[in-house]
Amino acid sequence: MPSFRIITFGCKVNQCDSAGLFQNLTARGWTAASEGESPNLILVNTCTVTARADQQARQAVRRLAREHPGAAILVTGCYAQRAPEEMAALPGVRVVMGNQEKAGLADLINSIDYVGIKLSGFPSADALDSFFPSPWRGEGQGGGENNLVFYVTGPGEEFHPWPVSPFPQHTRPRLKIQDGCNHGCAYCIVPKVRGRSRSLAGAEVETALEKLAAQDCREVVLTGVDLGQYGRDLNPHTDLAALLRRLRGRPWPFRVRLSSLEPHEVTLELLEECAAWENFSPHFHLPLQSGSGAVLRAMGRPYGPDDFRDLVMEINCRFPDAGLGLDVLAGFPGETATDFEATWSLVEALPVTYLHVFPFSPRPGTAAAGLAPLPHREVKRRALVMRDLGRRKKVAFLESQLGKVRQVLVEREAPEAGGLQGLTDNYLRVRLPGPAEWRNRLIQVRLREIRGETLVGEAADRLPD
What we know:
Blueprint: E1 3-8, H1 12-27, E2 31-32, E3 41-46, H2 51-67, E4 72-77, H3 78-82, H4 84-88, E5 93-96, H5 102-110, E6 114-115, E7 118-119, H6 125-128, E8 136-140, E9 149-152, E10 174-179, H7 190-194, E11 198-199, H8 202-214, E12 219-224, H9 240-247, E13 255-258, H10 268-276, E14 283-289, H11 293-299, H12 305-318, E15 323-330, H13 337-349, E16 354-359, H14 376-401, E17 405-414, E18 419-424, E19 429-432, E20 442-451, E21 454-459
Parallel strand pairs: 1-2, 1-3, 3-4, 4-5, 10-12, 12-13, 14-15, 15-16, 19-21
Antiparallel strand pairs: 6-7, 8-9, 10-11, 17-18, 17-20, 18-19, 20-21
Helix pairs in contact: 1-5, 9-10, 13-14
């Protein structure tokens, strides 16, 4: 049987796409390569949100080509969508395809003629038109032997649902219910590589959750490129609050977590629905980006520092122990020392759990790419300062949880940690003693001590059935 391996970079949506590709390939007779085995096919699902993400993808492809010279490398994802020529020039790459083509990729791969262990005989561009509606950018020789590379255009305008199944070795499946973005932030390439916002209909969301419930899942993460835009493209129009209201009308055997939400899309109605749902995990991730009004306007962000502060305090009031993560973009062109101080001061004053800090990275094709950048050393320094603040915030939040009892999903065995490792409902890593049978169970855990950035606890009085 032909074997494959999937390498994934980037966001939870990309992870959902990779899980779907995994299921599609295994359903067609492919087997996942075991550790140490050289696969016939390596599929690299890329991210392009930063220059660092691009670099990681290129390095991975070069390493894979060295380690597995007999394997065919197929590259897809956002970097492939943005700059297919760059991907095609790398060694070992046989095919480059964009985001729209992911849904049909397994069917295309399954149609390919095999010669030994090498993929060969890729269909012509005319034949590929029967699989994919996008026009081809062209074809040519890349880095691999007898390489034939196709470039496609268009990030996609339709929502393509994936097979519903947990990704192997994961206890918290992600369910993609939205894709694409309609915003035009000056620094962000995502709308150009993911397309406009589109959503999975509410009835299909319910059907997918039913399948996950039947597979004994204990947590589901609802995710999207811009989850807060959910439903605005559907007919009739709806929104994320209405979807949660619909879902919480039924009993589910799992808790539900939301992925990142744009601040201006977190409405009071949405917070009310979250608070009313017993299964909701109190965890929010918000992209702040900057605490300076001037920088936010230059970025094209439709809110100000005061709006953000009010939202965070509202969340904290309704969910006092909620995990609250922020994205911060350090060193945007034109950001002064005063602007940066405003960001630091705002974050320092808020009840934040953790930070994801990104140094500004110019993305070709975005408005900010043509702006005069700040000195690299200064951008790096500001990112380090924010990361230090994030670490201190994380420790303070961990300390505030000591002695409390939280619901923990046991994810895996961790012998080095004394037993098991899991995740609280408010997004904290926990180690605890217990039997292997507790894996994929929701249990109540009393949090006793801190080790590094992880909590150590023990099962409370109420043990799992």
